[in-house]
């Protein structure tokens, strides 16, 4: 069965998107990405060299764009103006690359999204021809507004960036998913494989993570675990879980024809 993730008209076999920051070095980054099976990798334009500094090692040499789809992001931006400027730079560095991740933060302590600035930046970027995947709060109204603006995917947080707290509000995520006509991916807050599986079982199209892998005791092993969790969660969602029943015991084996 073909069950690819489709974003901005392009298909991906993996529903796991992985960040490239916080690893020990580029070699560990590559090993983790390979173990995860991810085809889309995010890169913070303000923190990672992809050609800005010709005298320093470039991530492009370790993760060639011919093999991976880059998702430049605006990590560290606190205004629509800064976010738009950053992604314009990314487009130049990556030869007119259009698929981007927009995030505009509200404060440096929680890294919670500033949805007002996010909406403003999204409007500008969509008008300029970018394919915008957007980090946002788990507010269903904001998520729908971002879809109506023309974003190609909405990415509500499960919990705060880097917190590892897992999915704190599955009910809002379900509302967003049920009302969306574009992919909904959990972004931020995943801490372990079960968190990723739960997100997929809720019906998310995918999960984006970085810290959960990079900050693990064994990032390579965790990357493999996340790969399996995404696949298992997706299959569980497609299979359709049994109904929950309170005080309604049902034996696993049939009772008809039992020997008296």
In words, what does this structure look like?
The protein has about 260 residues and is α/β, with parallel strands linked by helices. It is built from nine helices and ten strands. The strands form three sheets. The chain has a five-stranded parallel sheet. A three-stranded parallel sheet has the order 6-7-8, with helices on one face. The protein has a two-stranded antiparallel sheet with strand order 1-2. α1 (about 25-35) packs parallel to α9, α5 runs parallel beside α6 (about 170-180) and α7 (about 195-200) runs parallel beside α9 (about 220-240). The longest helix is centred in the C-terminal third of the chain and has 21 residues, at about 220-240.
Outline the fold blueprint.
Elements: E1 5-7, E2 10-12, E3 16-19, H1 26-36, E4 40-44, H2 59-62, E5 69-73, H3 80-93, E6 99-102, H4 115-127, E7 131-136, H5 140-149, E8 153-156, H6 170-179, E9 185-187, H7 193-201, E10 206-209, H8 211-214, H9 219-239
Parallel strand pairs: 3-4, 3-10, 4-5, 6-7, 7-8, 9-10
Antiparallel strand pairs: 1-2
Helix pairs in contact: 1-9, 3-4, 4-5, 5-6, 7-9
Outline:
The protein is an alpha/beta fold and 260 residues long.
Features:
single chain; 260 residues; alpha/beta; five-stranded parallel sheet; three-stranded parallel sheet; 9 helices; 10 strands
């Amino acid at each position: 069965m073909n069950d690819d993730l489709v974003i901005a008209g392009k298909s991906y076999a993996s529903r796991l998107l992985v960040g490239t920051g916080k690893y020990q070095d580029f070699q560990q980054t590559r090993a983790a990405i390979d173990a995860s099976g991810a085809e889309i990798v995010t890169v913070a334009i303000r923190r990672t060299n992809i050609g800005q500094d010709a005298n320093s090692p470039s991530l492009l040499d370790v993760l060639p764009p011919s093999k991976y789809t880059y998702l430049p992001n605006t990590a560290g931006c606190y205004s629509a103006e800064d976010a738009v400027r950053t992604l314009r730079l990314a487009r130049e560095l990556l030869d007119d690359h259009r698929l981007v991740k927009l995030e505009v933060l509200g404060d440096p302590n929680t890294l919670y999204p500033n949805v007002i600035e996010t909406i403003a930046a999204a409007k500008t970027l969509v008008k300029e021809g970018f394919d915008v995947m957007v980090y946002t709060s788990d507010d269903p109204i904001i998520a729908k507004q971002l879809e109506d603006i023309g974003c190609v995917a909405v990415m509500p947080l499960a919990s705060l960036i880097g917190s590892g707290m897992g999915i704190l509000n599955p009910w809002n995520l379900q509302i967003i998913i049920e009302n969306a006509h574009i992919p909904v991916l959990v972004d931020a807050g995943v801490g372990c494989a079960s968190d990723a599986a739960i997100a997929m079982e809720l019906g998310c199209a995918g999960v984006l993570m970085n810290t959960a892998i990079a900050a693990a005791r064994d990032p390579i092993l965790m990357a493999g675990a996340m790969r399996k969790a995404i696949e298992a969660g997706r299959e569980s969602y497609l299979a359709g879980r049994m109904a929950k029943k309170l005080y309604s015991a049902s034996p696993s084996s049939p009772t008809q024809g039992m020997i008296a």
